[in-house]
């Protein structure tokens, strides 16, 4: 398994949705997941090298793979979330992204309402994902790092809703945090991920 290196997100210092201290703490948490994944990856390689006759299968591998899945999902979630918070030029979706939102939610305001509702009910994460089968967008709620959107969908936006994301600045007022995050979303980056997801669908369909 490859050894991962934590990514850097220098533009986060220009995001005012959360304080510098809260963001630094959040980035350290992400880096911890990368470190944990690398440790588990090395452990898995060691177990697999033993072979089936020497304990290279069974509950030990099952446990390591389960923990690796959780850690890797946390890494991908946080990287997508941090990418969302780069400086932006537009205050709301526009262009092809807005067209896709209107197709799926009837209007941009309705999409925003639906996303906020997904955030309100989510215990861990909320995502906007592109469905490869049906060419539409949908908002998903998740309760843990590895409760990703359904099969054949590609997340193009993620919002971290664990307490560590908002309690430092907002206390128990999760929705105040959500409002601030949504004002800081780089919709141009979301649009670029949508175009990438559509390119994948076009290649598969053709």
How does this model look, in words?
This protein has helices at residues 20-50, 59-84, 95-105, 108-121, 163-170, 174-183, 187-205; strands at residues 125-131, 136-142, 153-160. It is globular and about 55 Å long. The mean pLDDT is 90. The chain has 2 domains: 19-84; 95-205, minor pseudopilin epsh fold (3-Layer(bab) Sandwich), CATH 3.55.40. A 3-stranded antiparallel beta sheet has the order 2-1-3. It contains 7 helices and 3 strands. A hairpin with a 4-residue loop joins strand 1 (125-131) and strand 2 (136-142). The protein has 206 residues and is mainly alpha-helical. Helix 1 packs antiparallel against helix 2 and helix 3 (95-105) crosses helix 4.
């Amino acid at each position: 398994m490859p050894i991962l290196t934590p990514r850097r997100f220098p533009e986060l210092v220009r995001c005012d949705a959360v304080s510098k201290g809260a963001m630094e703490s959040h980035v350290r948490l992400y880096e911890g997941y990368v470190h944990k994944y690398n440790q588990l990856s090395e452990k898995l390689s060691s177990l697999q090298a033993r072979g089936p006759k020497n304990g290279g299968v069974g509950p030990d591998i099952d446990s390591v793979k389960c923990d690796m899945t959780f850690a890797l999902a946390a890494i991908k979630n946080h990287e997508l979330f941090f990418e969302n918070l780069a400086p932006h030029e537009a205050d709301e979706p526009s262009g092809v992204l807005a067209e896709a939102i209107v197709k799926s939610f009837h209007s941009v305001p309705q999409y925003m309402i639906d996303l906020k509702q997904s955030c309100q009910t989510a215990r861990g994460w909320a995502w906007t994902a592109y469905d490869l089968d049906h060419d539409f967008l949908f908002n998903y709620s998740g309760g843990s790092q590895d409760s990703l959107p359904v099969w054949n969908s590609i997340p193009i936006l993620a919002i971290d809703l664990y307490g560590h994301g908002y309690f430092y600045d907002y206390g128990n007022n999760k929705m105040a945090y959500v409002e601030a995050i949504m004002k800081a979303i780089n919709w141009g980056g979301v649009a670029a991920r949508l175009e990438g997801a559509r390119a994948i669908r076009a290649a598969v369909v053709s």
